[in-house]
Design a protein that fits this description.
Elements (H helix, E strand, L loop, with lengths): L1 H5 L3 H35 L3 H29 L1 H19 L5 H29 L5 H9 L1 H19 L2 H11 L3 H11 L4 H10 L15 H32 L4 H28 L2 H21 L4 H20 L1 H8 L5 H16 L1 H13 L1 H22 L35
Helix pairs in contact: 2-4, 2-5, 2-6, 2-7, 2-8, 2-9, 2-11, 3-4, 3-5, 3-16, 3-17, 4-5, 4-8, 4-9, 5-15, 5-16, 6-12, 6-15, 7-8, 7-12, 11-12, 11-14, 11-16, 11-17, 11-18, 12-13, 12-14, 13-14, 13-18, 15-16, 17-18
């Protein structure tokens, strides 16, 4: 990691840390709910189906937030929208601490989802446009490892706060701490600039109209659909574990609070390693090969974890590869999606595709909750997650390899090679490879 990281200039490093920290804080706020969910099921008498819908609501609204943020980022700027989304999701996480019922929490979780969906859309395209193409996959994928750091922060806070405060109040304190990311937006405002390729596009485009619908034109439609399918499979499978693993460990494995923290910690460490290593593999082996390896191994691992009669020790050890492979799929998406769309509609296309996957994939945790009543939570988790990962293989087989592509400033027209205003060297065609 040191070689490519130290070769970045000051602007690239500031952007890297801004997006990494923003993503980590985003994850912390989102995953607070995952670790609090078993407590709320007990305190409020919620069913597993209701708990699943709370998870799904945030993810569903995050898809809407991602679409909106992508459109706004193409019009007003990537860094500006990034700041707004961080403040938004932090504020509604804080408000969640005051909720008194399922319906109230459903509302605040939904509003929180708008923010964290938008944060990825703005941050991923910002990183992709600032970082040099030679290590774009490593940089963008490593930024996404911030999710594991944020998840780890949520688990650590959960373990500490629930150890010193009664459960009836501890979950509220955790949500109150979710306000902290809002202060980080002030740092972004001061130190993070808009990408040069975006500023060049705005200076030469001559208009400020929304261009969102261009991602559905013949030149871009196919890659928009396939990128959405890829995101659906990767995120749908990932959300099963993110939303249900703590509940599985408590209700199926009958672990204590400290035990759950330890098991989740091992899983989160695997997730962090998966992000970083997969990010490097996407530059070394290519985007497509990395997706195939990670999705295949993720399907096998999650099936073994939830469907086989394993001891608690085996479950603990298998938590590492479970996190590794599920996160390894996600690591390559940011750079890949940026390379599929030209600058004029990059944030729109990237935000739409990723968040269609997120929105449709958000129904997978809810489906787990519904199926769990009949076939058991572990079986429902394994079947739903493994099926989702199969979609990743389908999409990957139909997408082109995009590693090393220069990010361009204009939209290709039907039948044209996409080579119109390269920033440095000629841009290769988007034709199937």
């Amino acid at each position: 990691m040191a070689n490519w990281f130290t070769s970045m200039n000051v602007r690239e490093k500031r952007t890297f840390w801004a997006c990494f920290t923003g993503w980590a804080l985003d994850a912390m706020d989102v995953q607070l709910y995952a670790v609090i969910m078993p407590t709320l099921i007990t305190l409020w008498g919620m069913s597993q189906a209701q708990a699943g819908w709370l998870a799904t609501a945030a993810l569903l609204f995050s898809s809407l937030g991602g679409w909106i943020a992508g459109i706004l980022a193409d019009r007003y700027g990537r860094a500006k929208v990034l700041r707004i989304t961080i403040v938004w999701f932090a504020f509604f996480t804080f408000l969640s601490g005051f909720t008194q019922s399922f319906e109230q929490l459903l509302f605040t979780r939904s509003m929180q989802g708008l923010g964290f969906g938008g944060e990825w859309a703005a941050g991923a395209v910002l990183m992709s446009e600032v970082i040099d193409k030679r290590f774009r996959g490593r940089a963008v994928g490593s930024v996404q490892s911030g999710w594991s750091v944020g998840y780890g922060m949520a688990v650590l806070l959960f373990t500490v706060v629930f150890s010193i405060a009664p459960a009836e109040m501890a979950w509220r304190y955790l949500f109150f701490l979710g306000l902290l990311p809002a202060f980080f937006a002030l740092w972004i405002r001061r130190y993070v600039e808009e990408p040069e390729v975006f500023k060049e596009m705005r200076a030469t485009s001559g208009d400020s109209k929304f261009q969102f619908l261009e991602i559905f034109t013949p030149a871009l439609r196919r890659r928009t659909i396939l990128a959405s399918l890829l995101a659906l499979g990767g995120l749908g499978g990932n959300y099963v574990t993110l939303n249900w693993l703590a509940t599985y460990l408590r209700n199926v494995r009958n672990l204590s609070i400290l035990g759950i923290g330890g098991y989740l910690g091992f899983n989160i460490f695997g997730s962090f390693c998966g992000y970083v290593i997969s990010a490097h593999l996407s530059d070394w082996l290519g985007r497509r090969k990395t997706f195939v390896i990670m999705a295949s191994c993720a399907a096998i691992t999650v099936s073994s974890y939830t469907l086989l009669p394993l001891s608690n020790t085996a479950v603990l050890l298998l938590g590492f590869p479970l996190g590794f492979f599920q996160s390894g799929i996600i690591a390559g998406m940011g750079a890949t999606f940026a390379e599929l769309f030209p600058t004029r509609v990059r944030a729109s296309g990237q935000g739409f595709s990723y968040n269609v996957g997120r929105g449709v994939g958000s129904f997978v945790p809810a489906l787990v909750g519904v199926l769990a009543a009949d076939i058991g939570l572990g079986t429902a988790m394994g079947l739903c997650a493994a099926s989702a990962y199969m979609l990743v293989l389908v999409a990957t087989a139909l997408l082109p390899e995009t590693r090393g592509r220069e990010l361009e400033a204009t939209v290709p027209q039907p039948g044209e090679a996409s080579v119109s205003r390269p920033m440095a060297t000629p841009v290769p065609s988007f034709s199937q490879e």
